[in-house]
Amino acid sequence: MDLNLSGKVGIVTGASKGIGRSIAQILSAEGMKLTLVARSPLDEFSATLSTVCLPLSIDMRHADSASRVVDATLEKFGALDLLVNSAGATKRGDFLSLTDDEWTDGFALKFYGAMRLSRASWTHLMQSKGSIVNIIGVGGRTGSAEFSIGGAVNAALMNLTKVLADRGVKDGVRVNAINPGSIATERLQTRIKAFTAEQGINIEEATIQMAKTLGVARFGEPDEIARTVAFLASQESAYIHGAILDVDGGATRTL
């Protein structure tokens, strides 16, 4: 399906690896010009993509980062049609052991980074009748003892998605979110390796057992999230607004 994204301009945060990297690859393959944002260098990755891309090594935890990203995008491309907030990692662990600094850091990147970038992008997205897609996570729907920071951050970002969608009805900006389940990224592979060591089994068996524990048939692939982003960015989803899509293989069974 041609999603008619060719020539559009997007910003993708967290673009150096995992889901963010796949989103950049899929959107570029659809013909979008992109600003790629991550703390680590992106020049080599940017050079592999099929469209013109602007790589920016910027830490989105800093208050001025959002305006820097948007200004650089407008200077390079002259417009903005899509913002994908994909950056964010939160520390797992025992609630009683997690420090204030760890909580602050969890919110600083994923929540405040997305909020500030949405705010800085908003008027430009109004002009283009563009959209925002937030990459959040199913942990915000179902609480888990070892994921207290991530769950709280994700729940806050889901609420922000609804808030921005409400504003977007008037301003002409579509806002949606995706809750990935367990996706086969580097972070998940690290958890699988730890489980392998704990149980004394091989990687293949550990992967099967972990998937069963989570109530899914298999783990998802980053491209499966990326293709959903491309759909939400296109006019094929023009009447989808304020939606939070659980792309998790059926792991979330609550309403």
What does this entry show, briefly?
With 255 residues, the protein is an alpha/beta fold. The protein contains 8 helices and 7 strands.
Structure description:
The chain is of the alpha/beta class. It has two domains: 9-183 and 221-247, NAD(P)-binding Rossmann-like Domain (Rossmann fold, 3-Layer(aba) Sandwich), CATH 3.40.50.720; 184-219, no CATH class. The protein has helices spanning 18-29, 43-48, 65-77, 100-128, 148-171, 186-199, 203-213, 222-233; strands spanning 9-13, 33-38, 53-57, 82-85, 131-135, 174-180, 244-247. The protein has a seven-stranded parallel β-sheet with strand order 3-2-1-4-5-6-7, with helices on both faces. It is globular, with a radius of gyration of 18 Å. The two termini are 31 Å apart.
Write the layout of secondary structure elements.
Elements: E1 9-13, H1 18-29, E2 33-38, H2 43-48, E3 53-57, H3 65-77, E4 82-85, H4 100-128, E5 131-135, H5 148-171, E6 174-180, H6 186-199, H7 203-213, H8 222-233, E7 244-247
Characteristic terms for this protein:
255 residues; 7 strands; 2 domains; Rossmann fold; alpha/beta
Give me the CATH superfamily of the largest domain: NAD(P)-binding Rossmann-like Domain
Question: Level of helix content?
Answer: 40-55%
* Helix-and-strand structural type: alpha/beta
Tally of DSSP helical segments = 8
Gyration radius, rounded: 18 Å
Q: Provide the CATH top-level class of the largest domain.
A: Alpha Beta
Total individual domains: 2
The largest β sheet comes out as: 7 strands, parallel
Overall mean pLDDT stands at: 94
The SSE order reads EHEHEHEHEHEHHHE
CATH topology of the largest domain: Rossmann fold
Q: Strand content of the residues, in percent?
A: 5-15%
Instruction: Give the termini distance in whole angstroms.
Output: 31 Å
Number of strands: 7
The global form is globular
As laid out across the biggest beta sheet, the strand order is: 3-2-1-4-5-6-7
CATH 2nd-level architecture of the largest domain: 3-Layer(aba) Sandwich
